[in-house]
């Protein structure tokens, strides 16, 4: 595929953060780029705690794209580390530092060290909807059935 969207990264505070890798695809066909933590000192998450972890970069996505910040399954399965707002949304017009809102679902404290890979970022298309307000919606077989009405 040749029409890859162009994404610009800006390293924030280049001198301080030159040791923190920018997001990158770890394998040829990885869906997500791994994101590294840029916290200067270790951050320990008690069970149930949330921490907003800096990444040391900001970015510009093309219009019509978003980035999703998703958990890494290894951290989730081994240590119960997730993302409290998963998937986090990065808007194409956001120019601030990308941050990752980690949560410790595990039973033990977990420490995030600088440079660790804490999350992954997927770049994907997004559409803004054209909105109309109507009195009646079109009829469907499902109708208002939901929340398991077809069985579990
Ligand atoms: O995991 C995340 C989620 C969001 N953001 C940044 C990028 C995004 O464009 C901006 C706003 O995110 P969102 O719309 O999810 O948050 P909000 O609470 O609605 O804030 P706002 O009122 O600024 O839109 O915050 C991150 O850095 N990491
Ligand atoms: Mg918002």
Automatic annotation (TrEMBL):
<feature type="binding site">
    <location>
        <begin position="89"/>
        <end position="91"/>
    </location>
    <ligand>
        <name>substrate</name>
    </ligand>
</feature>
<feature type="binding site">
    <location>
        <position position="85"/>
    </location>
    <ligand>
        <name>substrate</name>
    </ligand>
</feature>
<dbReference type="InterPro" id="IPR008181">
    <property type="entry name" value="dUTPase"/>
</dbReference>
<dbReference type="InterPro" id="IPR029054">
    <property type="entry name" value="dUTPase-like"/>
</dbReference>
<comment type="function">
    <text>This enzyme is involved in nucleotide metabolism: it produces dUMP, the immediate precursor of thymidine nucleotides and it decreases the intracellular concentration of dUTP so that uracil cannot be incorporated into DNA.</text>
</comment>
<dbReference type="InterPro" id="IPR036157">
    <property type="entry name" value="dUTPase-like_sf"/>
</dbReference>
<comment type="similarity">
    <text>Belongs to the dUTPase family.</text>
</comment>
<keyword id="KW-0378">Hydrolase</keyword>
<protein>
    <recommendedName>
        <fullName>Deoxyuridine 5'-triphosphate nucleotidohydrolase</fullName>
        <ecNumber>3.6.1.23</ecNumber>
    </recommendedName>
</protein>
<dbReference type="GO" id="GO:0000287">
    <property type="term" value="F:magnesium ion binding"/>
</dbReference>
<dbReference type="InterPro" id="IPR033704">
    <property type="entry name" value="dUTPase_trimeric"/>
</dbReference>
<keyword id="KW-0479">Metal-binding</keyword>
<keyword id="KW-0460">Magnesium</keyword>
<feature type="domain" description="dUTPase-like">
    <location>
        <begin position="20"/>
        <end position="151"/>
    </location>
</feature>
<keyword id="KW-0546">Nucleotide metabolism</keyword>
<dbReference type="GO" id="GO:0006226">
    <property type="term" value="P:dUMP biosynthetic process"/>
</dbReference>
<comment type="pathway">
    <text>Pyrimidine metabolism; dUMP biosynthesis; dUMP from dCTP (dUTP route): step 2/2.</text>
</comment>
<dbReference type="GO" id="GO:0004170">
    <property type="term" value="F:dUTP diphosphatase activity"/>
</dbReference>
<dbReference type="GO" id="GO:0046081">
    <property type="term" value="P:dUTP catabolic process"/>
</dbReference>
<dbReference type="Pfam" id="PF00692">
    <property type="entry name" value="dUTPase"/>
</dbReference>
<feature type="binding site">
    <location>
        <begin position="72"/>
        <end position="74"/>
    </location>
    <ligand>
        <name>substrate</name>
    </ligand>
</feature>
């Amino acid at each position: 595929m040749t029409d890859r969207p162009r994404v610009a990264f800006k390293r924030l505070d280049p001198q301080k953060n030159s040791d923190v890798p920018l997001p990158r695809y770890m394998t040829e066909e990885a869906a997500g780029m791994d994101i590294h933590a840029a916290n200067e000192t270790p951050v320990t998450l008690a069970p149930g705690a949330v921490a907003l972890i800096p990444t040391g970069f900001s970015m510009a996505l093309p219009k019509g794209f978003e980035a999703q910040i998703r958990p890494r399954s290894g951290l989730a399965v081994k240590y119960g580390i997730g993302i409290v707002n998963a998937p986090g949304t990065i808007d194409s017009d956001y120019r601030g530092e990308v941050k990752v809102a980690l949560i410790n679902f595990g039973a033990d404290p977990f420490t995030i060290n600088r440079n660790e890979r804490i999350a992954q970022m997927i770049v994907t298309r997004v559409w803004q909807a054209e909105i109309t307000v109507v009195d009646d919606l079109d009829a469907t077989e499902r109708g208002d059935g939901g929340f398991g009405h077809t069985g579990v």
